[in-house]
Amino acid sequence: MAKNNSSWKFVKAASNIHTSKASQKSVLTALASRADRDGVSFPGYERLMKDTSIGSRATIIKALDYLKNDLGILTWVKGWGNRYTKKGVANRYTLNYENMLRVAEKQAHTEALESTVESTPQILESTLGALESTPQALESTLPVLESIKSDTLTSQGERPSKNVSGIERLGARPEKHLLVKAETNGVPSDLESTLESTPDEFSGALAYDPKDRQWYANPGMGRGLTDAEQVERKRRNDLHMKPELVAQ
Questions:
Q1: According to the model, what pLDDT value does residue 18 have?
Q2: How far is CA 124 from CA 113, 128, 134, 219, 248, in A?
Q3: CA-to-CA distance for 119 and 129, rounded, in angstroms?
Q4: Which of 101, 127, 204, 243 lies at 20 to 30 Å from 79 by C-alpha?
Q5: How far apart are CA 248 and CA 229, in angstroms?
Q6: pTM of the complete model
């Protein structure tokens, strides 16, 4: 095959083009290798058969027709002169470089789309598998989150939430308040259960009357109740708290 230093861009463009048959790619490569800077070459059928190792003239003609009509990258003029040809007059073949680039780009784009379509089922399957494993992942994560929450509350001086004898204490500081919500079989109780508490700081100011079940100012105190003591007295009466529910 003749060497042509000006044909390199056509050879490169031809290498990026896919054909439906190997014989078509062989003919395209042969024409690109013989092309001048304008893509023009004058090989006869016999020369193309030698360059491509194709033994059939009819196969050469079909390949040329494919490059011209199917890909639109080749044109020729029948019998255009070739002064080096001794037997007959060869055709003048012209490769269209811009069309070759356009065909290669279109084929690459099509291949990318086909690859995406082919990989879509695997991607969907992988995504579904990840979604199916999400509940298990969350289930294994929850204990870790609960542990972190508990450690955080402890470091802040707060007790984690817990239930004691049916009475719910939601992170309350024991030295501050007692939670008033209590349930027995879903019905609020009168706090008959024993509550956690600190020593009663109002023991000297408040006294309990078992007859009317009310808390009053301690007569022996010799003074009136402070604002804090008034609030505590009202709280105990509102909760119907008995002396045994108040830590001494």
A1: 96
A2: 16, 6, 15, 80, 67
A3: 15
A4: 101
A5: 16
A6: 0.46
How far is it, in rounded angstroms, from Cα 68 to Cα 47?
A: 19
- pLDDT tens across 203-229, in order? 788 888 888 889 888 888 778 889 888
The angle formed by the CA atoms of residues 85, 17 and 47, to the nearest 5 degrees, is 15
131, HSE (Cβ side, Cα atoms, 13 Å): 6
Cα–chain center distance at 104: 33
Domain ranges of the chain: 5-104, 159-196, 199-248
d(CA 114, CA 126): 19
pLDDT band, very low/low/confident/very high, at 71 (cuts 50, 70, 90): very high
Across the chain, mean pLDDT equals 78
d(CA 245, CA 235): 13
Give ∠ CA 194-198-200 in degrees, rounded to 5: 95
